[in-house]
Amino acid sequence: MSLSRRAATRKSLKSKMKHEHLAGYEVLVCVTGGIAAYKAAGLVSALIQRKAATTVAMTANATRLIGPATFGALTGQPVYTDMWKQEFSADIGHISLSDRADLVVVAPATANILAKMAAGIADDLISTTLLSVAGPVLLAPAMNERMWSNPATQQNVSTLKARGHIFVGPESGWQACGKTGLGRMSEPQTILQAIEEALQHKKPKSVS
Ligand SMILES: Cc1cc2nc3c(=O)[nH]c(=O)nc-3n(C[C@H](O)[C@H](O)[C@H](O)COP(=O)(O)O)c2cc1C
Fold first, then answer.
1. Helix, strand or coil for residue 176?
2. CB contact burial 54-74 (16+ within 10 A = b; e otherwise)
3. Which residues line ligand 1 (CB under 6 A)?
4. How many structural domains compose the chain?
């Protein structure tokens, strides 16, 4: 093989490794009922491209904004929406989703899920799963500016930060309500970077 061919092969291998650097990690993406739920599809696609084993769970409200079939097609895996479904309780169990995940991400995180997490409420699949997570959860809030700045939400955010949860965003910009303000979910690439940072010193559960 010529020198230039070898260099090109090394370069393409390096770039492949760079792109597959989440191989071995398992990420659980919880999608809640915010208008930014469609952006979660971009995040899930980016995780799959980086070879992270990605599972998606959705709240009932999220399924009204984006179909589970989108995430099913992206991950090639079942999408979990209901802990009372026979297949779910038989195969997975209501706390096992968090057991096997190296990182749990909530994107978008509604004002509602932040409040439920802060209060320890477990009344559906996602809130129950989140209450059973041992380590920090990565939260990407998205909501109208007034919902974000409401003292109730801000107090919930402070509580969750004090418990060690990681926040990415929200950012300022155009909002679905037609106004510009703080509350936009961070872009998938920014959330991906935060996921990479959260995992970089962690050994995947699959090898430990
Ligand atoms: C079209 C539409 C868009 C919504 N977008 C948001 C949002 O961006 N952020 C938010 O906190 N709530 C939003 N809501 C309200 C939530 O869906 C509502 O609070 C719901 O109870 C959240 O449930 P969940 O957290 O279980 O998904 C939206 C509602 C509708 C109808």
1. coil
2. bbbbbbebbbebbebebbeeb
3. 32-36, 59, 61-62, 110-113, 142-143, 147
4. 1
Can you read off the two tokens belonging to residue 75? 């991950």
**pLDDT at residue 84 in the model:** 85
Active site residues: 177
Residue 70: give its domain's CATH number.
3.40.50.1950
| Containing structural domain, residue 155 | 3-207
Interval 8-52: pLDDT, tens:
655 554 544 456 789 999 999 999 999 999 999 999 999 999 999
- For the cut 90, the answer to whether the pLDDT of residue 133 exceeds it is yes
Q: Percentage of the chain with pLDDT > 70?
A: 86
Mutating to test ligand 1, I would choose from 59, 80, 83, 110 the residue with most ligand atoms within 8 A of its C-beta, which is 110
